[in-house]
Amino acid sequence: MNYRKKAILMVVALFCLNIAMLAQAVSLKMNNVSVKEAMTQLKNKSGYSFVYKVGDLDTKKIVSVKAEQLNEAIDQILYGQNVVYEVKGKNIIVQKGQPRPKVVKGDKKRKITGVVNDLNGEPIIGATVKEKGDVNGTATDLDANFTLEVSPGAILEVSYIGYQPQEVKVGDRTTLAITLIEDQQVLDEVVVVGYGTQSKKDITGSVAVVSTDAIHETPVATFAEALQGKASGVYISNSGGPSGETTIRIRGVGSLNSSDPLIVVDGVSGVDISSVNPNDIESMQVLKDASATAIYGAQGANGVIIITTKQGTRADRVRVSYNGYFGVAKMANSGYDLLNGWESMEFEELGQQNLYNYRGLATSHPQFGQIAATGGKGISMPYAIKPAGYSEQQIIDMYGSVEAWEKSYVDDGSSSWARSAYYQMLADGYSDAEARKGTNWYDEIVQTGKIQDHQISLVGGGEKATYSVSLGYTNREGTIQNSYFKRYSLRTNTTYNPNKYFTMGQNTNLAAMETGGESGRQGDANTFAKTYTMNSWVPIYNVGGDYTGSVAPNAGRDISAVHQVAMNENDWTRMFHGQTAVFAELSNPWIEGLKLRSQFSARLNGMWSLEMTERQNMANKEASANNTLTETGNWRLNWQWTNTATYTKKIHEDHNITVVLGTEAIKQGVGRYMQGTRIDYIFESDPNTWTLDNGSSSNIGNSSRYQRKVTMFGLFGRADYSYKGKYLATFTIRRDASSKFGSKNRWGNFPSASLGWRMSDEKFMEPTRKWLDDFKLRAGYGTTGNSNIGSYNYAFQYGTGNYYMYPITGSDSETSPGYVLSNLGDSDAKWETTKMFNIGFDLTALSNRLTAGFDFYVKNTSDLLVPANWSALVGNASKPSINIGDMKNRGIDLSIGWRDKVGEFGYNITANISRYKNEVTRLGSSDLFNDTRLSKVNITTVGQPVGMFYGYQIDGIYQNEQDVISSGVLPYGVATENDLVASAWVGRYKMKDVNNDGKIDADDRTIIGNPHPDLTGGFNISLTWRDFDLSTYMYYSIGNDLYKHYEYYTMFGNLQSNYSKDRLAKSWDPVNNPNGIYPLWTTTSTEGPEAGNESNSNYVQDGSYLRMQTLTLGYSLPKKLLKKIGFEKIRVYGQISNVFTITGYDGLDPEVRSHTSFENEYVSSDMNKGIDYGSYGMPRQFLMGVNVTF
Questions:
Q1: Strand-pair partners of 764
Q2: Strand runs (DSSP E) across 166-225, as ranges?
Q3: Is residue 935 within 8 Å of residue 951, measured between CB atoms?
């Protein structure tokens, strides 16, 4: 017998079993009892329970029942009510409908046949076909056909999950063709909230439910990347690197230390983003306001993201899915528009000429020489840049021949000879035109990276057990050479129910990851910065075949970008993240509605890295003559034990109460860190020799330390109340203790309350019910805490070391180890406390086609923990964070969606928009600054948002000497009028006298830009037609400024960097460019300090942008074909990501992520927000993928 016949027999057998159950004998006899009493008696006799909406059924009506079968009993109990019913399992589902007819004995039934299809003509297998008002029914077979005996005048009720139910009058017909229309209604979702679940319609807090389809369709390394623009009030900044490092902010900045939200996966707190495979996610909720997050207490101040991974089913079948794609990733930009080799030489000549013409001064370049007008031999491209500025003839004169010069090469830096890129490329066979361009460092290091992702999952289970297993493999090459991210993941979720009272299970996730090369973090040491800090007239290789670099005078800083990526080739960092949780639940143990749950989880993270810093002194003027191997390892164990008791009770049909009580113990940071270094490896390019023992034993470096331990304990409770589903209330309380605080302030209390009113259920709203489906007002107020400070902030710590000069022995010899106070503590430090008020509404209308949600919030954080700015009198010890600040955030979140179907064309459009305003309202006695190579680039000060850009306000360019004199303001750095030489300031920056004291000095620095956006959001458009689907997703950020820190190098040549073509095109010139925005170009050595060494408003630019993140076209094989080959789904698709970006920003990418170091780890930061040195930017990806289920 083939599988098809077997399946048909199984369907028929199941249906017959169902009919037999419904027709089972039930002896029930009652006189003059209420409908409610009759229902109770039927449940006691048969085990069948009635399910209905309050108000649909008059339970006080008096009935009499005399029945021998189940269907007779149901009909008599519901007789005369304006309802219909359907029996599913052990539930009798009652809904509003036409009055139930009396059952007339003796009616002659007749057989009818039919078929049920969708709008595309595809068969709907397993659709329910039932005679209205009767238990008589069947299900469609594998060809979507059905046969049924019905009474005269019968009406059929046809239904299937995901389609609108339909009533069909049989009339005189014996054959029916029925078409079901896809259901556009929003399901009454069950949403995961803190330590439990709630129906979405009953939530009174601000909770965003993120579509997992939107996450799965975005090709990313982490779920955080895909979350961008999917939920209002959630701001995501991506690095664009292959490992997917991100910054997440929920409703602005909540702290000066860290505003990262809490990540909870399957009830486990603090999970690492990179260890979660996005394909494993079944549901995701973002808790945004304090009434939703207060139950997490000290962990919830910055919002909570709750993730539930895929669980098993009780469908008695195994469902196998495969999702995979292959593709390529390319840079979506062409790098910095820098001067090429020949242009750099000509630019130097122009600068020297300007210096002579307008300043009467002369200078010389060590490579290009000096113009003839000032006594030089003229500007020319040197043959050799090491030694500096030599012509070929000079080399021959000194060494006898070029060959002899090459043979004298020594890789020691001092004799590491190099030609200019022009002459080296000519020698390598390039044309003169190509050789003049020199080295384009950006083009030399970018690549087309290959990306692939494969996920396979098995889901199944039965009556007593369920299971879900998934395996994943991700391999993403970055768009910079030798950069990559790999992840192997395994997740297993299982449950077991030995009986109806007891459930036990486990959730386990294992992820092994490896990263290498450029990560995309900001700073002038990253690979992107090295594309502009090395000049284009420098060749890749010197005459000895080694890399060229800063050993050539004025060549640039450090090593070249090509040298950097080559050194990354065999370096790696490998990580293991293991997470497991075991739980047990006891349902209705002694009290109906009571559930007890206990879950213990552990997370074990390990990291091992190997890095060879090859000897660089032949290229890098700052490098030593040694190579160095650094090997680092650490492990960290965290555990969490959560216990909850949940009680649910319905009182008098109208009152629903749920109470949750619990305890939670957390310990983090059990583990060790160690690092070893050795130098002088003979075979530095062979990773097989990279062990510490193979290095020199004369210079050994090593260190180790404990991880920083933290313990927390919390008591919490929540009470949810609903009256007729119309009046809603939620109250929570949590009391937390943390080891980060001294004994006086270790405990904190975090309460919240929220109310909801389903206004649409009120009688006065009846006129709106034709178009308004649901309208709920909600408001909440709550308190949460934050403890993102050092683990031992409260404690005074002591250390040893020769540099302390106070030996334990008491002698005055500095060679003995000393003992001294190394870290000051603040035993009075206490929790940062965030209080938030939220008011909003949720709306669905027009048959649930329109959805909308709105929130307004005020979020006040008090007792900010700020690094102490104590005087030098306290000594050199590190200073703690102390409570001296307050902060406020206000904002709105709005989301709206529309979905519909017109014939075979379906569409779904969703959009969201968010705005927040951050303000520091108290900050002790001094401002906080962030320094780069420029002083005080960011400022955090009272009355302004965190991390504002700070510096001098450029007010133009001095046009002539009269402009300098008549301005009435002494230029930057000029102390008195007697010191002013007006001619020296023509063509230089004119700065605004902010304090009106008649001179420009440090007191004139002011706010010059705001890195916080005015508006952020996204919109998604999904279209379907027959078996095709087309979707796109866009994200935008409006009103935020960015700080073009890369211009410190590319506009002013700092650290001997290359110049941008913009500096050539936009420099002021009294004749050729009187409207120029940059100072008169007079060579690097004569740039005024106000231009190259001070933060100013010319660095700041609007960073607004609109980006089409994805464009996807898919095709699903027809159901008829799938049925024949035994598959449930086969979909193929093509996708482009980062399709386009509309922006006026000059940098590589307007999406700039900032970070800082905290307790030896990189964390996202708001104090230096928006500073752009250059990084990946989002790559443009081209993918082909397939989704298969069977």
A1: none
A2: 166-169, 175-180, 190-193, 196-199, 207-210
A3: no
The continuous run of DSSP H or E covering 295 comes out as: none
CA dist 372 and 375 (Å) reads 5
Task: Give 918-946 pLDDT, tens digit per residue.
Answer: 999 999 878 999 999 999 999 999 999 99
Instruction: Provide the percentage of residues in the chain whose pLDDT is more than 90.
Output: 65
How far, in Å, CA of 797 to CA of 124, rounded? 71
Of the pLDDT bands very low, low, confident and very high (cuts 50, 70, 90), residue 107 is: low
Read off the pLDDT of each residue in 660-688 and give the average, rounded to a whole number: 95
**Nearest to 393, CA basis, from 410, 380, 374:** 380
Predicted pLDDT of residue 901: 86
pLDDT digits (tens, 9 = 90+) for 158-207: 887 667 788 898 888 888 989 887 664 444 567 888 898 888 888 999 99
Contact by Cβ (8 Å): 150, 110: yes
1089-1094, long-range: CB within 8 Å, 24+ apart, which pairs?
1089/972, 1089/973, 1090/952, 1090/971, 1090/972, 1090/973, 1090/988, 1090/989, 1090/991, 1090/1000, 1091/988, 1091/989, 1091/1052, 1092/1048, 1092/1052, 1092/1053, 1092/1054, 1093/934, 1093/1054, 1094/934, 1094/935, 1094/951, 1094/952, 1094/972
Contact in structure between 138 and 126 (CB atoms under 8 Å): no
- C-alpha span between 1140 and 61 (Å, rounded): 65
Cα dihedral 779, 783, 784, 790, rounded to 10, equals 150
Whether residue 351 contacts residue 515, with contact meaning beta carbons closer than 8 Å, is answered with no
DSSP bridge partners of 485:
476, 515
Cα 1061 to its chain centre, rounded Å, is 35
* Sequence-ordered list of residues with C-beta below 8 angstroms from that of 394, at least 6 positions apart, any chain: 383, 384
Does 796 have pLDDT greater than 70?
Answer: yes
Helices 3-22, 70-77: axis angle to 10 degrees equals 60
Distance CA 37, CA 220 (A): 57
CA distance 178 to 33: 41
At residue 223, the pLDDT reads 83
Tokens (6 digits) for 1057: 């960097």
Q: How far is residue 432's CA from residue 429's CA, in Å, rounded to a whole number?
A: 9
The predicted structure's pLDDT at residue 1162: 67
Cβ neighbours of residue 1171 closer than 8 Å, sequence gap 6 or more? 522, 932, 937, 938, 1042, 1043, 1045, 1152, 1154
For residue 692, what are the β-bridge partners?
Answer: none
744 burial (CB, 10 Å; 0-12 / 13-18 / 19+) is: exposed
Structure tokens at 296: 């997490």
Q: What is the mean pLDDT of the chain?
A: 89
Q: Would strands 49-51 and 91-96 be described as parallel, antiparallel, or unpaired?
A: parallel
Place of tokens 């989301």: 895
Token digits for 739?
């080891």
> Considering the entire predicted model, what is its pTM?
0.85
Long-range residue pairs from 1047-1051, CB within 8 A, at least 24 positions apart, any chain:
1047/1098, 1047/1099, 1048/932, 1048/933, 1048/934, 1048/1092, 1048/1099, 1049/524, 1049/529, 1049/532, 1049/533, 1050/336, 1050/338, 1050/532, 1051/1078
The pair of three-digit structure tokens given for residue 968, joined into one six-digit string: 């009435």
- Predicted confidence (pLDDT) at residue 453 exceeds the cutoff of 50: yes
CA distance 602 to 581: 7
Phi, psi (deg, nearest 5) at residue 1085: -65, -15
Quick one: which of 103, 63, 249, 425 has its CA closest to 1153?
Answer: 249
Paired with 329 in beta bridges are: 449, 1181
* Banded pLDDT at 125 (limits 50, 70, 90): confident
Q: Which of 209-213, 232-236, 503-507 has the lowest mean pLDDT?
A: 209-213
Task: Compute CA distances 720 → 189, 206, 732, 754, 824, whole Å.
Answer: 17, 15, 9, 10, 45
**pLDDT tens-digit series, residues 71-94:** 778 878 887 787 878 777 677 888
| CA–CA separation, 1076 and 1091 (whole Å) | 14
Instruction: Find tokens 């993102």 and name the residue.
Output: 788
